[in-house]
Amino acid sequence: MGIVVGAAIISDGRLLAAQRAAPAELAGGWEFPGGKVHHGETDEEALIRECQEELGVVVSLGERVGGDWPLGDDMVLRVWFATVVAGTPVAREHLALRWLAPDELFDVPWLPGDLPVVRRVRQMLPDLLGLSE
Ligand code: C5P
């Protein structure tokens, strides 16, 4: 079972979404930045590495978003909230980046595996942003 990690990066109340460049069948779809966990690294180390590689930033990881989200038959997606502690995200490997406000979260065509996670992020966001009553 392969493990893919993703970052729900929040800044100024907005969620960072990244548009995949490859492979062809996923290109144009939007995802949480991240990627496969390598042998010998923890999930958290992998996610920090991927954010550095893909976005050129150092992130600090916060709360996990749910548990294992299925990606097909042989992979799971694990997602953490994150904040940028150094740098400004740039699309090094993606086609584009967007900072989505809470009312824009579903304005992009998320990859099917990421979409249920975005729904969970939406549920968790008010608490995270300190906006809950
Ligand atoms: O980014 P990377 O190619 O390493 O990811 C491996 C696979 O995990 C992708 O082919 C894609 O199917 C899936 N993935 C995803 N959502 C993400 C990251 C990766 O569905 N946020």
UniProtKB/TrEMBL annotation:
One of its GO terms (molecular function) is 8-oxo-dGDP phosphatase activity. It catalyses: 8-oxo-dGTP + H2O = 8-oxo-dGMP + diphosphate + H(+). It comes from Thermopolyspora flexuosa. Residues 1-123 form the Nudix hydrolase domain. GO terms for biological process: DNA repair; DNA replication. Its EC number is 3.6.1.55. Keywords: DNA damage, DNA repair, DNA replication, Hydrolase, Magnesium, Metal-binding, Mutator protein. SUPFAM superfamilies: Nudix. InterPro entries: MutT-like, Nudix_hydrolase, NUDIX_hydrolase-like_dom_sf, NUDIX_hydrolase_dom. Coiled coil: none annotated. This is 8-oxo-dGTP diphosphatase. Its cofactor is Mg(2+). Belongs to the Nudix hydrolase family.
